[in-house]
Amino acid sequence: MSTSASPTFPTSRAAVRAAGATFAAPETTGSTNADLLTRAPEVPHGSVLVTLDQTAGRGRLDRTWSAPAGETLAASVLVRADLDERDRGWLPLVAGAAMRDAVAGVLADDQSDDVPDVAGTTRASRPAPRVVVKWPNDVQVDGRKLCGILCQVAADGSVVVGAGVNLTIPADRLPTPTSTSLAVAGARGSAADLADRVLTTFHGGVLEAVAALVAGGAGAEAVRSHVRSACGTIGQRVRLELPDGTAEEADAIGIDDEGRITIRDRHGATRGVAVGDVTHLRYA
Predict the structure, then answer these.
(1) In whole angstroms, what is the distance from residue 2 CA to residue 9 CA?
(2) Angstrom distance (rounded) from CA 85 to CA 271
(3) CATH of the domain at 123
(4) For the whole prediction, is pTM greater than 0.85?
(5) Other CB atoms within 10 Å distance of the CB of residue 81
(6) Sign of the CA dihedral running 25, 73, 28, 58
(7) For the chain, how many structural domains are there in total?
(8) When you count CB atoms within 10 A of the terminal residue's CB, does the N or C end of the chain come out lower?
(9) With contact defined as beta carbons under 8 Å apart, do 156 and 40 qualify?
(10) Are residues 39 and 150 in the same domain?
(11) Are residue 66 and residue 91 in the same domain, yes or no?
(12) pLDDT > 70 in the chain, percent
C-alpha cells in the first residue's frame, strides 16, 4: 500500500507547532537526520523533519535502512536541552521507549474492533501483539523489527533523534526475514494516517521524557524505570557482538544507571556494556 499524495500530517504538525517548534515535511529527501543536522542551529527544541520517501537513510553501525517510498516513516526530532552526559546517553533508550509506546498505542487501538479477517477471526479475539524495545532502541513487534532509532549530535551540541518505521510494507516485501510492519502486525489505515498517529505520540513522548530528565529527581527516575520496563532484552539470553569484532552469549539482566545493558556471562560475572549489537537468541 502506498500513498499517492504528499501527506500533510495534520495532528503531529499541530502538536509540534503548539510546542513552539517547526515542522517540515518534504515529499522526498535523502535523509531526515542529515537535513535536520544541517538546520539544527536555526530551529528550536522539538522541531521535526519528516517524510514518507527517504532515499539514503542510515541505521545504527552505519547500516542501510531500506525504506520503500510511501510505505515507511522517516522522522527526525531535534533535542536541545540542558542534559548532563549521563542523561544524554539515555536519549537513544528514551527514544526507543517513546516509539514503543506510540506503536503499542496504534496497535491497541486497531486491535479493539470486531472486523473479522479472511479466516473469520476478529481482531479483538486474537492475542495482542507484544511490543518491546530491543536494547538499545530497536522496536520489535512479536520479535520482529518494526523500527530503528539513530541519534546524532549536531555541530551546536543539540541531538537529532531519527526514527525509521515500517508502515504498510506487505509481508512479501519486507526488507529482512526478521522484519515486520504496522500493517502486517494488524494496524489499519493508510501510510499517511499511520505515520501521523505514530509521530504525534512519539514526538510528545520524547519531549516529555527529556523534560523529566532535565528536571531530575523522581521524574527522571520514572523515565529510566519506564525504559527498563519497555526493554524486552532484559531477561533474555542474547548474543552480543562488540565493536572489536568479538561476540559472546550471555544473559541480559538489566540496564544500569549509565544506560548500559547489564549482562551475566557463563561464568556468572556481570558487567555493563555500552555499545554492541544484540540478538535475542530466542528469535535468532
Answers:
(1) 15
(2) 20
(3) 3.30.930.10
(4) yes
(5) 16
(6) positive
(7) 2
(8) C
(9) yes
(10) yes
(11) yes
(12) 88
- Residue 161: phi and psi, rounded to 5, are -100, 110
- For residues 28 and 116, membership in a common domain is answered with yes
User: Which residue segment(s) compose the domain that 141 sits in?
Assistant: 10-223
**Three-class SS of residue 71?**
coil
Residue in 98, 99, 87, 128 with CA at minimum distance from that of residue 111: 128
Q: Are residues 133 and 240 in the same domain?
A: no
Q: With a cut of 80, say whether residue 33 has pLDDT above it.
A: yes
Strands 237-241 and 277-280: antiparallel
Q: In the block, which residue shows the cell 537535513?
A: 35
Cell digits of residue 167: 508502515
The answer to whether residue 3 is domain-embedded is: no
Asked whether residue 202 is domain-assigned, the answer is: yes
| Coil/strand/helix, residue 196 | helix
> Which amino acid type is present at position 89?
G
Mean pLDDT of 232-236: 96
Greatest alpha-carbon pair distance for the chain in Å reads: 57
Domain contains 5? no
β-partners of residue 148 are 164
Between CA 90 and CA 127, with CA 73 as vertex, the angle to 5 degrees is 80
Lowest pLDDT segment from 182-191, 220-229, 245-254, 274-283: 274-283
Is the domain of 30 the same as that of 119? yes
What is the Cα–Cα distance from 23 to 83, expressed in whole angstroms?
A: 23
